Amino acid sequence: MNHQDVSFQSDGVSLQGTLTLCDTEHVPVVVLMLHGSGPLDRNANMPGQELNIFNPIADALRQAGIRSYRYDKRGCARSGGDYYSAGFTDLIKDACAAVDMLISDLGCDRIVLLGHSEGTIIAPVVAHLRPEVSGVIMLCPTVQPVEDTLIRQAKFMARAITEMRGIRGFMARLGVRRKGGLAEEQRKLIDQIKATDAASFRHKRQRIPAKILRELLAHDLRAWIEKIQVPVLAISGAKDIQCLPSDAHLISQITQGPTETHCLDDLTHLLRRDDTGVSFNHYNELANKPLDPRVPQLCKSWIFRQCSDE
Hints:
Layout: E1 3-10, E2 13-20, E3 30-34, E4 45-46, E5 49-50, H1 54-63, E6 67-71, H2 88-106, E7 111-116, H3 119-129, E8 133-139, H4 146-163, H5 166-178, H6 182-195, E9 201-203, E10 206-208, H7 210-217, H8 221-225, E11 232-237, H9 247-254, E12 259-264, H10 283-287, H11 294-307
């Protein structure tokens, strides 16, 4: 079988995942996939949102003879624990525990981290803490302070609302005006997150993972990226409205190891192509499209160049 259910322990929490094997191993590494933000399962899905990012990448790697592992976040899908009581440091510990499991159970001492979005924030820390990490792939990476990113995303969302048509758009714009604007509302939420010691709280019918966000807001991402000494592949999207497309190039200027960067035209944060405008309004349609094949192809090619035994 090419796919095996494999679990590991992290601080007493059992995390469940999928190990994808290949008929013929061409590169002696295991790719460990690190999620974006939110209560995501091993495929980057959650109730009401199916992105299916990691499963097609894992299958593309398998066909190229590269093993991979992906897991459900704590408190998500089949993993134990509680996502909403966890902190960002817990997510880092979980990723480190996954590396340890791959080394002990598979006897593989060469791990490539593949992070998407928030996963690109976790990966530099894990690469520093685990010397077995021999490379880092960053999909839709960011170097910006998390607070700046959250405010910028709110401004993009406000722009998307102005583009909405019909009664739905009218009501959305009316609601935004009553609250003083989305950016201002986001600032108030950030202030609330910083002011509380609670692990989570309710906000507009949503449960906010306050502890994770509080620790992210205090995290010096750039300082950790500057510590990376292993080879890096950074892929950004020209139509990414959540992370700056230019950050992939910026990463190449501050890491200590060799860094290859790509900014793919029409690529969005969902790793799908969008040949229309740049807006959150297309997200539901984009999620139903297949993953952009350029992404796994670049990952495979880079892994072969960096990790193949001579």
